[in-house]
Structures
1.
Amino acid sequence: TTLASGEIEILCHEIEVLNPSVTPPFQIDDENLSENVRLTHRVIDLRRPEMQKNMMLRYKTARAFRRFLDDAG
C-alpha cells in the first residue's frame, strides 16, 4: 500500500531468513576495548567514527602529497 508520506507498507505472512548475522563481539561505541580485540575484529573497528576520521585524514594527506608531487613533476 502506498502511504501519503511516499513510503511503502508491506504485509508479510511468512518470512525466511537466508543469511542470519551474529551479534558483534563488542559495541561500536565502546571506548574501553583492548587493542587485541580491536585488531582481531578490524572490520568492525573501522566502523567507529574515530577510526573513520583517522582514515579520512590519511586519505586527504596522501592526496595532497600526491598532488604536490604531480605538480612538481
2.
Amino acid sequence: MGYPPQPAPAPQPAAPRERPFGVTILAILYAIEGLYCLVAAFIVDSIFDWVPMMNDLPMVGDILDTVKLCLMIVLIIIAIFYFLVALGMLKGQNWARRVGIIFAIIGLINIPIGTIISIIILIYLFKTEIKA
C-alpha cells in the first residue's frame, strides 16, 4: 500500500538579520543631531540672556522670556525625538525608519547642503534591503 505519512519538519527560526552598516551610521547621525538640538537649547538660553537692554523693559522682557522658554522646550522635544529615532534604528524598528524619512523630508528645505544630504538619506531608506 504505501508508507505512513512522514511528519513535516519543524520550521526553523529565521536567522536574525544583520543590521546594515548604513543604518548604524544614520543612527549615529541622528544621535548627534539630538545632541546638537540640546546644545542649541542652551545656546538659545545664553543668547536671550545677552540682551540686557531689552530685558530691562517690563513687557519686552516678559515676551522674550516666554519666547526663550518656548524655543528651549521645542528644541528639547526635537532632541528627544532624534534620540528615540537613533535608538529605534539601532534596534531595527520600522517606525524609526518612517520617522527618519519624515525628518529627511523636512530636511529638504535646508538648501543646498541639507537638501543633498536629505536626498541621499531618502534614497538609502527606501532601498528594499533597508526596508526589510
